Amino acid sequence: MLSGVDEAGERLGIGEVARRTGLSVHALRFYERQGLLPGPVFRDHSGRRVYTEQDADWLILCVVLRGSAMPLPVVRRYTELVRDGDGNERERLELLRGHREAVLAQMAQLQQSIDLIDFKVAVYEDLLDGGDSGLPGENGKYAVAQPAPRGGIRVRSPRPSDRCRR
User: Fold this and answer.
1) 156: β partners
2) Phi, psi of 66 (to 5 degrees)
3) Torsions phi, psi of 9, nearest 5?
4) Nearest 5°: phi and psi at 138?
5) 3-class secondary structure, 3
6) pLDDT at position 159
7) pTM confidence score
8) 107: left (phi > 0), else alpha (psi -120 to 50), else beta?
9) Would the pLDDT of 1 be above 90?
10) pLDDT of res. 150
11) Phi and psi at residue 58, in whole multiples of 5°?
């Protein structure tokens, strides 16, 4: 018998949870040591970890949060708040709103990167097709693309000292 595990619920071994979450067995143990599960991980009579469906679902949430660059201490704090139960929903909300803002800022920065990469890809495609990019300095020396103040990119002609292709 497992202490604290719902007898009606499915019991999952560490390998199955690793498969479902995409985490390695080592990472699952690390998450457990870091206190990233809302409850204890129980063990069977042989001492092997036994997880519940809820544990697997929670770990998937942690994977998504970590994938969005949520720092480990923030995931741990969120887990602690959930573990503490009702009454701290406002703090959970603020934590998630703060992280959402950070993700949106990261997305904006990534969009600028994509814009710059798309620009450079178009320049090289045009040059390889034997065409002229139509931009000053693109034949022989490449114009320098920089982020524009309001998003997107702007192109400036290369200085005479710019001797390498960019």
Assistant:
1) 144
2) -65, -35
3) -80, 155
4) -80, -15
5) coil
6) 47
7) 0.71
8) alpha
9) no
10) 60
11) -65, -40
